[in-house]
Amino acid sequence: MTIYPSLEIPATLAAGPGPGNTDPRVLERFAKTGIADHMQKDVVRGMIEAKEMLRDLWGTKNVYTYGVAGTGFSGLDCVLSMILPGDKVVAFPNGTFSGIDSLTIRMKAATAEELAADPLNPKPASVSIIETPHGQSVTGATVDAALAEHKPMWAFMAHWETGSGRINDLKGFSDACLKHGVMGIVDAVSSLGVADFNIDDYPGVVAWASCPQKGVLSLPLTYAPVSFTDKAIDMVKKRGCRTYVHHPILDARHWGIVDGKDVPNAVYHQTHSCYAIAAFHEALRIILGYGRRRKASDYAYHEKALRQAVESMGCEVTSDMTSLVVLNLPDKLRGKEKDLVANARAKGFGIWPTLSEPVQVRIGILNQLSAEQIAEIVNRFADEMLEMGANFDKQNVLNGLKSYYAQAA
Ligand SMILES: *Cc1c(COP(=O)(O)O)cnc(C)c1O
């Protein structure tokens, strides 16, 4: 038997697509919370307050708005569990994450025979996968045409596809769902807490899922925000779904949502952690205090600074998200993406390659919304580039960054 020494994990510069850099206030709430069980009154109060703050963050009056314990894919599992075997679904992946979501959809929509035929990668006849190439955005026209052709019950799209850094046409998706009488489901993992939008403005979408660790910035494993319209909940009420823990109606009870209404008491669903609730509650307080609109404009402002800086190093940016820059290295360094990222990561500079082809470099700015933090990222990335043999004058790059911020100020 081996008992290992205590696990020490260093502080790195989390400059990838996620997780974002955790605010000390969130960690403080996590660590300073007393032990209390999942039905203790302040824990329950925290859940109910968090639910109400989440409605503000999502921009919704949906009663069925709450957090699913776990990571982004836990929330997605909850919303996608509305899909039953044999349901007709059209999914619009354009990168790694919407590709994984499409796999979840294929698993849920597969009949027993279809699942048995290829258990880890089922290909049910009732699911159509409409691929948009990496680096491009899903357009409303693509969605409209596919829904007209396939006439599904459900449609699925990611709002912001973090694998390629692309923003998809949410309005086009919602409008097409309305036009064709389809229930839309959206992965808003990367956009919630970064972009300024109200989900109630997209009535074609009946269910949304996000995550704790990106724009919401509550990594200390907490909650994946989800929201369902009454139409979605009515469908689950009528047909049921094949999960207890991620059941859209049953899970909501612990957040004080019973029979379509807010109630003052929780109904036990699972043993929620007082530490997680306190951290999540604080993260929501921080984000709403900062202001959704201001946060969105700060992300856009700092993303532009980073984008210009990497372009001045000779990189080509192919993303349009505001929390992440996805880039091609200059020709001279093509093929060295993974080495460059590995070198950076070995020094605690946590950037990422893309996880599916083509290989690109991803640099994120979650919770790095200051000129100093962006300068640190630019500095460290410039050093890695130069070490790999890039040709540029680092002082010029830094001067360019300085003048961007000076002009803006
Ligand atoms: C990060 C991400 C996920 C997965 O979230 P986890 O927290 O890793 O489970 C899903 N979809 C999108 C768009 C993401 O960016």
Structure description:
- With 409 residues, the protein is of the alpha/beta class.
- The protein folds into 2 domains: 24-288, Type I PLP-dependent aspartate aminotransferase-like (Major domain) (Aspartate Aminotransferase, domain 2); 292-408, Alpha-Beta Complex (Aspartate Aminotransferase, domain 1), CATH 3.90.1150.
- It has helices at residues 24-32, 41-58, 72-80, 96-109, 112-117, 140-150, 170-180, 230-239, 248-252, 274-290, 292-312, 337-346, 371-387, 394-408, and strands at 64-69, 89-91, 127-129, 154-158, 160-161, 166-167, 183-187, 205-209, 223-228, 257-258, 261-262, 316-317, 324-328, 352-353, 361-364.
- The strands form 4 sheets. A 7-stranded mixed beta sheet has the order 1-9-8-7-4-2-3, with helices on both faces. The protein has a 4-stranded antiparallel beta sheet with strand order 12-13-15-14, with helices on one face. Strands 5-6 form a two-stranded antiparallel sheet.
- Strand 5 and strand 6 form a beta hairpin.
- The model has no long low-confidence stretch (mean pLDDT 97).
- Residues 18, 71-73, 97, 158, 161-162, 187, 189-190, 211, 213 line the site of pyridoxal-5'-phosphate.
- Pyridoxal-5'-phosphate binds next to helix 3.
